[in-house]
Amino acid sequence: MTSPNNRQDSGRTIIPAVRASNHWQDRAACKTADAEAIFFPVSPNAATIQAAKEICYGCPVIEDCKRFALENRETHGVWGGMSEKELQAARRAPQKPRAVRIVEKQRAEWDAAVAEHGDDNKAIARALHADVRTVEQVRQLVGDTSPAVELRQDQMGAAA
């Protein structure tokens, strides 16, 4: 769910700096929707929640939105096709490490990023919206023996 610049939704102000760092919001299906009425209703009911979810289900950035809501502990509204109750339940559920989730659910994106960027872990991290340590962990999970992984393993062994 996106919010217009400098608009206050459910007590949170979304400012341009936040939007700039979350470029996925510019491609969101809800970008032009009436956010207050659809995604942040005063009295949510099954019909309004379903209407919001219908917009989400056709959205190209639904996973980014869901991840944003979970990472930022959003407590109000529909985000990434999930109601407030569903978001709350997802936050309570044990999470697999990010590296494991990338291997399981983003393998095609991982393979494309490695094909494009080779051993450049920083570039791969940017492509996957992850951090460099996560990229190193994914490389280890998939059995990648690139120089970047071997170097990191050598450094870890020297520190032990």
Features:
160 residues, mainly alpha, two-stranded antiparallel sheet, 10 helices, 4% strand, elongated, disordered N terminus, disordered C terminus
Description:
One of its GO terms (cellular component) is cytoplasm. This protein is mainly α and 160 residues long. It folds into 2 domains: 7-92, no CATH class; 98-159, no CATH class. 57% of the residues lie in helices and 4% in strands. It is built from 10 helices and 2 strands. β1 and β2 (12-14) form a beta hairpin. It is elongated. The protein starts with 6 loop residues before the first strand and ends with a helix.
Short account of what is shown:
Helix content is 57%, strand content 4%.
